[in-house]
Give the backbone structure.
Amino acid sequence: MLNVIVVGCGRVGSRLAGMLSDNGDNVCVVDWRADAFNNLGRSFNGSTVQGIGYDEDTLIKAGIEDCDVVAAVTQSDNANLMVTEVASRLYDVPHVIARLYNHDHERAYMQLGIDYVCGTTLVAEETFSKVISGHGSHVDTFGDYEVLRFSLDLSWTGRESIRVHDMEREHDISIIAFERKDGSSSSIPTGDSTLHQSDLVLACVRHDLLESFSRYIQS
C-alpha cells in the first residue's frame, strides 16, 4: 500500500485518485479550488487538501513527509514542475511524476531525471501504471518484463562508453533503441553500437533484474 499525493483534481487527477483509491492505496488530493473535489465522486475514500500544490504548508498537510509518490497532474506545466522540485529536492519523495503538455520540454525532463507523462489521452492510466510500478523510468509492463526509458549513467563504471552487446550480455537485457544526448541521431542498435554517458535509452528489463540494472539510470 502506497501513500500518494495527487496534485490537481481535474479530469486526469480525479480519475487517477479514483484508480489509486480502488487499488487500496492511501491517497490525498490537492487542488486550489474546493469545488474541484466534486470530480472525485462518492466512491473515493481518500482525503483532500485545498491549497496551492507547490506550497510547503499545503503539502505538509497532505502528508508529504511520509509520502511514497507525488503525481503533479494540473493543467500547468510550470505548476507541475514546481511541485516536482519541492517534492524531490526538499522532501526527498522517492517517486515524483509530472504531467507534461509541451512536447518541446520532453528531452529536458528526461535529462533532468524527471519522470513524466506526456499527452492528452489516457494520462491517468499511464500515471497509475507508473505509480504502481515504482520505477521512474517505467514506460510499460509486459508480463515479467518492463520497458524503461532513461538517460544512461556510466559514471560509476569508470567508462565513457559501453557496447550494446556487452551491456546486454552482462545484464541479460535488450536495448530497443537509443538517441544521442545532444539529439543529433537516434537508432535501433546492433551489438556493435556504442552507448555514451547521458544517451537516451529504451530498454527491456526483467523485473528481477531491475534493482541491479538501476545503477545505469540517471537519477
About this structure: The chain is about 30% helix and 30% strand.
